[in-house]
């Protein structure tokens, strides 16, 4: 698989996500003024957790298996395998819906039961789009998922905002979820019909279902891993949902700030990780030692991984430094004084280093999961099991001591340990620490970021403290000018390999015949 294809897909996804998240950002800022924090807490924590749990456990293990490099003759078995996600999600959705309705504390909001049922059904319906999704990615149509997500997300956001003018309950979010899921499935199948060749088939009869034992075994291993990763990734949501350590209103503030941070994570990291997971999985054979891989493929993957780690490390460093100085101002503009004068600014400040470790962890794990053997997957699962339990206990303990900030602290620790495991694997795979060394910024870069960060912090203490329009404007100008200086210095201090990699991420400079 050509690295330029992946780079184009990753950068195109990032650009489209900037637009989509900008629309979502503005819409959510508007929704904050229309609905209560209790409603936001129930939707963005309780109902979204139900939806995400069904989707991720049903989808991710099968995707990891089906998106790896396989001989063409095994395609019918992969088709059978990916269709399993739908009945599995239906069973899982029924079980979890009963837990959400009968076991958990019921919020004092109308239409809560309807919301649980609809969000679960939407998660199941979206799994009907998995076969065309896997087909399109295996055929290297890397931009097609962008079209699906763009259309569905945009219409969901607009409809939710419009309906929220007439109802401040859960109804706008329920309708938005139905719109998104329906469009998600319909648009995927339309694109598949347009792109497919005459010999390709992703619809199989029940009598033709055939799953190879090695695929089934690997899927089970990935399912165990996905369960543990889901606990680690959304651990704070599970703690808030099952232990009720904070109120629904506090959950609303936490979810609002977390979604702001998630915009950076999803725009800056998520789709790059998805694209390069596909790249690593198809460049290298899973389970084979490095000395049995192609020399050119191994060299390309090593350079690409090192550049990705460095890019995310620099991005995370800048976000962390400037987040300390501009967190309150960002929330003031976004959600008004009520959000800026709550625990929101401190939450956002702590989310900035969390963003930094998320970037490094996502890239290191995408290589880890794309290349390790089934035995290594099982070994990793055994390591995650006790760590997941410790993480949940730590989340509960820190939330009692530090409130919602405790969840962010627990997540930072969680990501740091996952980074350790994945980078240790990378060092063993490539036989050295060269890839790891590329992650660290050099001394001139650290100096300029430190000086400009200190300048922005001083500006916050002097200018923002005045709480006047002029003070805010000057504070923004100082931050903008110093950020430009930082970016120019970071660029000038890089080597030719990294600059060439960054240029390859620019879709204007790239040409491919893939689509």
In helices, the fraction of residues equals: over 70%
Main sheet, how many strands, which sense, barrel?
none
Total count of strands: 0
Strand content: under 5%
Distance between the termini: 14 Å
The DSSP helix count reads 20
Q: Helix and strand succession? A: HHHHHHHHHHHHHHHHHHHH
Q: Shape from CA axes?
A: globular
Q: Which regions contain 5 or more consecutive residues with pLDDT less than 50?
A: 507-515
Q: Radius of gyration in whole Å, from Cα?
A: 23 Å
Structural class: mainly alpha
Work out the oligomeric state of the chains in this entry.
Answer: single chain
User: Which whole number gives the mean pLDDT?
Assistant: 82
Verbal overview:
The chain has 20 helices and no strands. The chain is mostly helical and 515 residues long.
Please specify the SSE layout and strand pairing.
Blueprint: H1 3-32, H2 37-66, H3 75-83, H4 85-103, H5 112-126, H6 130-138, H7 144-164, H8 171-195, H9 213-233, H10 235-243, H11 248-283, H12 295-335, H13 337-340, H14 344-371, H15 374-402, H16 405-430, H17 434-437, H18 443-462, H19 469-492, H20 496-504
């Amino acid at each position: 698989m050509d690295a330029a294809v992946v780079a184009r897909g990753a950068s195109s996804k990032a650009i489209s996500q900037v637009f989509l998240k900008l629309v979502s950002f503005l819409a959510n800022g508007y929704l904050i003024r229309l609905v209560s924090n209790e409603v936001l807490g129930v939707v963005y924590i309780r109902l979204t957790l139900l939806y995400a749990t069904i989707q991720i456990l049903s989808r991710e293990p099968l995707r990891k298996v089906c998106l790896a490099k396989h001989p063409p003759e095994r395609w019918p078995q992969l088709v059978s395998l990916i269709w399993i996600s739908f009945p599995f999600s239906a069973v899982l959705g029924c079980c979890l819906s009963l837990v959400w309705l009968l076991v958990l504390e019921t919020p004092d909001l109308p239409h809560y039961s309807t919301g649980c049922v609809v969000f679960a059904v939407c998660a199941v319906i979206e799994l009907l789009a998995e076969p065309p999704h896997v087909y399109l990615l295996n055929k290297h149509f890397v931009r097609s998922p962008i079209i699906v997500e763009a259309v569905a997300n945009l219409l969901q956001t607009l409809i939710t905002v419009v309906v929220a003018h007439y109802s401040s309950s859960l109804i706008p979010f329920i309708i938005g979820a139905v719109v998104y899921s329906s469009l998600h499935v319909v648009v995927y199948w339309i694109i598949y019909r347009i792109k497919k060749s005459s010999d390709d088939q992703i619809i199989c009869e029940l009598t033709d279902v055939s799953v190879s034992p090695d695929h089934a075994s690997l899927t089970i291993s990935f399912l165990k891993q996905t369960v543990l990763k889901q606990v680690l990734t959304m651990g704070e949501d599970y703690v808030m949902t099952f232990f009720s350590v904070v109120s629904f209103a506090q959950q609303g503030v936490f979810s609002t700030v977390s979604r702001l941070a998630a915009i950076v994570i999803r725009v800056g990291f998520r789709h790059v990780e998805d694209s390069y997971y596909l790249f690593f999985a198809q460049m290298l054979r899973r389970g084979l030692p490095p000395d049995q891989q192609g020399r050119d493929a191994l060299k390309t993957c090593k350079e690409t991984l090192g550049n990705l780690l460095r890019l995310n490390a620099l991005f995370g460093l800048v976000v962390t430094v400037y987040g300390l100085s501009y967190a309150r101002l960002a929330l003031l503009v976004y959600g008004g004084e009520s959000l800026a004068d709550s625990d929101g600014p401190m939450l956002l400040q702590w989310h900035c280093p969390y963003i930094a470790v998320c970037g490094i962890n996502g890239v290191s794990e995408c290589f880890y999961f794309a290349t390790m053997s089934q035995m290594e997957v099982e070994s990793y699962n055994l390591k995650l099991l006790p760590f997941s339990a410790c993480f949940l206990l730590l989340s509960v303990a820190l939330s009692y001591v530090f409130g919602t900030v405790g969840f962010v602290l627990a997540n930072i620790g969680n990501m740091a340990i996952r980074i350790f495991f994945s980078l240790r694997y990378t060092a063993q795979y490539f036989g050295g620490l060269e890839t790891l060394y590329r992650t660290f910024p050099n001394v001139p870069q650290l100096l300029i970021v430190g000086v400009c960060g200190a300048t922005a912090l001083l500006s916050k203490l002097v200018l923002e403290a005045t709480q006047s329009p002029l003070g805010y404007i000057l504070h923004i100008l100082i931050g903008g000018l110093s950020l430009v200086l930082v970016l120019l210095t970071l660029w000038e201090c890089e080597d030719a390999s990294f600059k060439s990699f960054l240029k390859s991420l620019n879709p204007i400079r790239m040409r491919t015949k893939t689509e």
